[in-house]
Every structure is written in C-alpha cells, then in structure tokens.
Amino acid sequence: MSKTATIIKREFLSRIRKKSFLVMTILGPILMAAIIIIPVVVAQLSDSDYAVAIVDESNFFYDRFQDTESTTFTPVNVSIDDAIDLMHDGRFDAVLHIPDVAFESPSTLRLFSDKSINFNVKLLIENILKHEFESLKLKAAGIDAEILSAIETPINIQAFRIKNDGELITDYPEISMGLGFVAGFLIYIFIFLFGSQVLRGVLEEKTSRIVEIIVSSVKPFQLMMGKVIGVGMVGLTQFLIWVVLTFTIVSIFTLAAPDLFRFTPDDQVYVSSTQILNAEEMRQQQEVIQQHDSFAGQLIEGLGAVNYPVMILSFIFYFLGGYLLYAGFFAAIGSAVDNEADTQQFMMPVTIPLLLSIIMVNMVVQNPTGPVAFWMSIIPLTSPVIMMVRIPFGVPYAEIALSAALLILGFIATIWLSGRIYRTGILMYGKKVSYGELWKWIRHP
User: Fold this and answer.
1) Residue 386: helix, strand or coil by DSSP?
2) How does strand 71-75 pair with strand 50-56?
3) Each residue of 167-197: pLDDT tens digit?
4) Is residue 212 a part of any domain in this protein?
5) Is 240 among the domain residues?
6) Does one domain contain both 275 and 179?
7) Assigned domain for 162 exists
8) Which end of the chain is less packed: N or C, by CB atoms within 10 Å?
9) Which residues of the chain are under the pLDDT cut of 70?
10) Are 400 and 374 in contact (CB under 8 A)?
C-alpha cells in the first residue's frame, strides 16, 4: 500500500508544480465569476443615452413616445431629409420616420441610423407603435380600448417547492436549469481533461521505457491505481480552489457594487394583511419594485436559494466516481498501444456514453423526472453527467442512493477490468492490438 501512496504523491506533486496547473487554477474562477459579473457591467455600460428624432407626418404620434432611462425621443418639425442631416451632424443617433399613410400602410415606417440600430430601442419603438396602432383600430371599430386594457392580466407566478417536512422554499426553475447545464458540462469536461492526462501519462512512460524500471519494484495494478488516484486528486484540488475563489470574487464584487445587484424578494413586497386584500395595491407595489430590481440581483437571489453543500458534495462524488470509471479505461487504452494515433480505435466506444449524456442534457432539463432522465442518471456510464443535471431540480434520496451505489460498483468493475489489461499491455511493444487480444488479456488468469 505504501508503494501505491508513493506513486499517488509523485503524480499529484508533479502536476500541481506545473505552470499550466497554476494558470488554470487562477484563470478558472476568474472566468466563472466573469460569467456573472461581465454581463452586469456590460449592461450598465451599454445604458448610455440613445437619442431618437421623430418625424411624424401624421402629427398624431409625437406625444406617444415617452423618454426612458436610456432612450430620449425628440419630435422635430422638419422634413425627413433635414432630420437625417441633423443625425449626420451628431445631434441624434437615429431618426424615426412616420409618413402620413402609416396607419393605412404600417410597412412604410422607417428607422434610419448611421450605425447599426440599437436592438432594444428598435423593439421599444415597435411596441409603442403596435399599441398605438391597435388603439386606433379599436377606436375606428367603436370598441373601448380601456375595457380591453382592463382585461389584460399579466401573470407572474411565484414557484414554491414543498420539502418532505412540509417547509416551503422558493423555487427558481430557470436557475436550476442553468446550474444543471453548468454542472453536467463541468463533469463532462473534467472527466475528459483528467482522464486524458492519465492516458498520456501511461503512454509516455510506456514509450520511454521508464515503466520497465518502475514495474520492477511495484506491481502494475499498484502503478495504475497510483496514477489514476494521483491525477484525480489534482482535479479535486483544483475544483475546490475554484469554488472558494469564485465565491470570494463574486461576493467582493456584489459588496463593492450593490446598486448593480438590486433585488427585493416577493415575500418582502406584501408586508401586511391589508395589502394582501388589496389586489390593485399589490399589483402597483409589485410593478414599482420590479422596475428597480436588476437582472443580476434576481440571478444572485436565485443562486442564493441553491443548497450549495448538497451541490458541492454531489459534484465531488460524481466527479470522482465518473473520473475513476473512465480513467481506468483511459489507463488501459494507454497501456495497450504504442502511440497516440492508435488510441482512436479504442477511445470511440469508451467515450460514446459520455457524448450521449451531454447530447441528452437538453432533454433532461426539459423533463428532469421523466423515464429518460431517471434511467440515464442510474446507469453508471451516464449517471455522472445526468445526475448532476437533475440534482438542482431536486432528486429523491432513494434515486441518488441507487445511482451512487451502481456508480461505485461500476468503477470497481472498470478498475478491475482495466487492471487486467494494464498488467499485460504496459510491457507489450511493437504489436497492433485488437479487441480480441484485449479479451484474451482480460481472461488470462
């Protein structure tokens, strides 16, 4: 056992001392934190004032356009050509032309700009004109627009998840979906990244003949296990550092710029029983608060509702289980061939379940409790990715226990099979290996 521990220590220390490990350990959390921070900062910077001139030949829509925080509408009583000249001079960013036949022919509406049109401004203008055109048509048809407006009922349902003990917790399905995608993709990347390190390490030692010296003092199975566990510890160490640094970076940024992360939870909107009975007052208060909430604030609020101990412990378990499952295969493949080009014929059957699991992620997040999601989260070859996709949605403990038990049995069987291939293949040179040959190595006592 001490020999295996020595190999684990050597594999671990030799990799964490590399510059690539240090670079990725620092860049990883920065990139993950940037996924949250950069969109917030970019959105804030992109909210500069956008000036739009309105040339309304129908003289009906001038007072229909209200300024927003980022867009200013200015009526101009000049021809469209003169308005465009003012835009060229830098007075305006865009010119909206409403001809006098616009009501009969909406396709005559035009929006001019020297640069690419701001998409949000274009969408805002279209929504305003759509509402006004519909009001004009209703008026022409003798229908009271105020009645129709009163009928419109925006629906925003707050979701709750009822725990086994009856406790209600706010549910954010969009956050669960995003976390599922990210967690499943990270498991997929980590298994390939660190599994390929095992394959290349075994292949390098074999082709350089160093392995002949090593196996003179340790058993081949001890060497394989030491290499697999050592590289796995490197991946686990890097992941834990990423979690701590990412959380630290995001926390510091949210404290330094609280205005960018404004958010008022729904349970703080309805503060008294009298308000609960006043539907109109509730609606108005909700609208006012939502206008001041930021998307980043909603995102942070949703992430705050995640059970991080469960997520992190599950990620560690399924990363280690999935890694051990596939690293054994990668070690066996590296021991069976003489160069990296020959690994392709054996890599495809091994990686197909992983590829299938990442392909099926979209279907799983759409129906995380369906039969496809259930069985793929139970089968060991696909469970590391699929179960991590499902866990943010809430998975019964019995299913997690079954999945975990089968995964443990799976990587034990994989390590055993790979060890039988490894003990023969690591000292085999100059021969093209077939699947039949691998089967003989497995059956050999």
Assistant:
1) helix
2) parallel
3) 655 556 666 777 778 888 888 888 888 888 8
4) yes
5) yes
6) yes
7) no
8) C
9) 1, 33, 35-48, 144-175, 212, 215-216, 253-254, 256-308, 340-342, 429-431, 445
10) no
**3-state SS record for 62-103:** HHHCCCCCCEEEEECCCCHHHHHHHHHCCCCCEEEEECCCCC
Other Cβ atoms within 10 Å of 58 Cβ, number: 12
> How many other C-beta atoms are found inside a 10 Å radius of the C-beta of residue 116?
6
The pLDDT assigned to 80 comes to 86
* Contact indicator for 328, 228 with CB cutoff of 8 Å: yes
| Together in a domain, 260 and 240 | yes
- Indicate if 260 and 378 belong to the same structural domain: yes
Alpha helix stretches (DSSP H) within 371-425: 371-378, 383-390, 397-425
Helix (H) or strand (E) holding 55: strand 50-56
Q: Give dist(CA 118, CA 93) in Å, integer.
A: 9
Question: What one-letter code names the amino acid at 374?
Answer: F
Do 52 and 71 meet the contact criterion of CB atoms below 8 Å apart? Answer: yes
Q: Taking the CA of residue 313 as centre, how many other CA atoms within 13 Å lie in the half-sphere pointing to its CB?
A: 6
- Say whether pTM exceeds 0.85: no
| Residue 50 backbone dihedrals phi, psi, to 5 degrees | -115, 115
